[in-house]
Specification:
Blueprint: H1 8-19, H2 26-47, E1 60-65, E2 70-75, H3 82-89, H4 96-103, E3 129-137, E4 144-149, E5 155-160, E6 166-173, H5 194-204, E7 212-221, E8 236-244, H6 261-272, E9 280-286, E10 292-298, E11 315-319, E12 322-328, E13 340-344, H7 360-384, H8 386-406, H9 412-415, E14 421-423, E15 428-430, H10 432-437, E16 447-450, H11 454-458, H12 461-468, E17 473-476, H13 480-487, H14 503-514
Parallel strand pairs: 1-7, 11-13, 16-17
Antiparallel strand pairs: 1-2, 2-6, 3-4, 3-6, 4-5, 7-8, 9-10, 10-13, 11-12, 14-15, 14-17
């Protein structure tokens, strides 16, 4: 029995129980390792003409045995020698992938995309497994070796057999836990189903660049017997077929001309569980010190819980095509919390579990760029597709107003031009710029009436009196409107007064009352 080459028990216990918060990511980590192994062999074939490799044969295979309680992740990548098993698996936090990237930094091109960084992902297997066996045969070697460990006392390395180069990682899953005091228990059986494994692959590793294959159960009709009578009823049978589970090529990395609007819509609806097509789809590719791709969507309709405390904003964050966070809130400002999409970058600095990020400056740079892109897209919609923009604003405009109010007016220049208000004179939504351009000479303030019903506001004597003077009145029916106006006192718009007051409106109301009209109060 060999001991792990670190503060073994303490560190491995920390690895298993503290670093990762979500047990189901073990499959993501092991598939990423398998992808790295295949990438290394692919890279070797590009550098060494003597390495004959059929690109179409490169693959990762996942299988399970419910009775034996095992899950196996196999690849036909570069494999490991006994010494490499000792170094990569016997030394916790030694990353063979990171070492490979460092050694080949100058030669690597776009054809190689190594995922691993820390050398700890493999040990996530012990979160779900009581025993782990790794059988590996290095490319060009005749001998294979097996590494085995229960994750506690150490590990063994012995000679073994494997027909071809590559690696098999075989997990023996733990027994289901008993209910605790809260009535909860971890059920490891959920990983021993075809549906469970397929779901995890598609959730976390759907865009790994190599095929991830599984034997899946399908149904087919049995051949009709030749002597079957007229009352014959078709019979069906189950059979097993090897199927590629992942999509491999992310839609956000395809050229826009190669993707149809229907394909974008289907991706949006299937990924974000929406029944309606998005109102807008747009992409972003950033280059430089921080490279990333983003595919963003403006939903066609607001989710029912958008303005509730339970709503979670955020974009899906991928690193080298592997899902890291389902909702990365730091990539969006609160007033754009309705935006959905994915961001993929190999440059983001992850923490050791790859579940969160380390450097906030990277996130801030990405957020600023994404914010500008969303703003630009909304401005384009406002100017070129007003009907669509009105629908958008009716769904999400309140959040833009809150963005101005909650920033104490600091975001008025970025968001003020995106706001729409109902014009009592024009009987349609207008921007503040459009309001300003329609102001007659002598108008020194923006007039608005606030309440909870547009029709009732329009009937107010004060509104009628202001309209009679030739001035327009904005009818505001959301609680945030007045606060928004207060925060926008210095908003710059061509010809727009820098005050949002209703003194003149009050004078008109007093005149209306003097003429015999009943005073009206505003609804709050």
């Amino acid at each position: 029995m060999r001991q792990f080459k670190t503060e073994s028990k303490k560190l491995l216990d920390l690895m298993i129980n503290s670093i990762y918060t979500n047990k189901e990511i073990f499959l993501r980590e092991l598939i990423s390792n398998a992808s790295d192994a295949v990438d290394k062999l692919n890279f070797k074939s590009l550098q060494d003409p003597s390495v004959k490799l059929d690109q179409g044969d490169l693959a990762i295979r996942v299988s399970f045995d419910k009775d034996a309680r095992t899950i196996t992740i196999s690849d036909n990548g570069i494999g490991m020698t006994a010494e490499e098993l000792e170094r990569n698996l016997g030394t916790i936090a030694h990353s063979g992938s990171e070492e490979f990237k460092t050694e080949n930094a100058e030669q690597q091109g776009s054809d190689v995309d190594i995922i691993g960084q820390f050398g700890v992902g493999f040990y996530s297997a012990f979160m779900v497994a009581s025993h782990v066996k790794v059988v590996s045969r290095a490319y060009g070697e005749e001998a294979a070796h097996v590494w085995e460990s229960d994750g506690l006392e150490g590990y063994t390395i012995e000679d073994s057999e494997r027909a071809e180069h590559g690696t098999d990682v075989i997990l023996t899953l733990r027994e289901n836990e008993k209910l605790d005091a809260d009535g909860e228990a971890e059920t490891y059986d959920r990983f021993l189903t075809e549906w469970g494994l397929k779901s995890l692959i598609q959730q976390y590793s759907n865009y790994v660049r190599y095929p991830i294959q599984m034997m899946v159960t399908k149904s087919r009709q049995k051949p009709k017997p030749e002597d079957a009578g007229d009352d014959y009823k078709p019979e069906y049978e189950d059979y097993q077929e090897l199927e590629t589970i992942n999509s491999m090529t992310p839609i956000w990395k395809k050229h826009g001309s190669d993707v149809t609007p229907e394909e974008y819509n289907e991706f949006y609806k299937s990924t974000f569980h929406d029944w309606e097509d998005p109102a807008r789809t747009f992409s972003l590719h950033a280059e430089g010190t921080l490279e990333y791709d983003a595919l963003l969507f403006i939903p066609g309709k607001a989710p029912f819980d958008l303005y509730s405390r339970d709503y979670e904003k955020g974009l899906e964050l991928y690193s080298s095509n592997v899902l890291i966070m389902e909702k990365c809130a730091d990539l969006l400002p609160d007033y754009y919390n309705f935006v959905r999409g994915v961001v993929d970058s190999a440059d983001v600095t992850l923490n050791i579990s790859r579940e969160t990020l380390q450097q906030t400056r990277q996130l801030q740079a990405m957020e600023r760029r994404i914010e500008k892109k969303v703003t630009s897209e909304l401005e384009s919609m406002r100017d070129n597709d007003r009907d669509d923009y009105v629908k958008f604003f009716e769904n999400f405009g309140r959040g833009l107003k809150y963005g101005i109010y909650q920033s104490y007016g600091m975001k008025k220049d970025e968001l003020g031009g995106l706001l729409l208000f109902w014009s009592a004179r024009e009987q349609k939504y207008v921007t503040l710029q459009e309001y300003a351009e329609a102001m007659p000479e002598g108008q020194k303030a923006v007039y608005y009436a606030a309440g909870d019903d547009r029709d009732r506001l329009a009937k107010m004597p004060v509104v009628k009196a202001v309209l009679a003077k030739g001035y327009d009145v904005l009818l505001c029916t959301e609680d945030v409107d007045e606060f928004c106006f207060q925060a926008m006192r210095d908003f710059e718009a061509k010809g727009l007064p820098k005050t949002y007051e209703d003194d003149a409106a009050r004078e008109a109301a007093q005149k209306a009352q003097a003429d015999g009209a009943e005073p009206e109060t505003e609804d709050r």
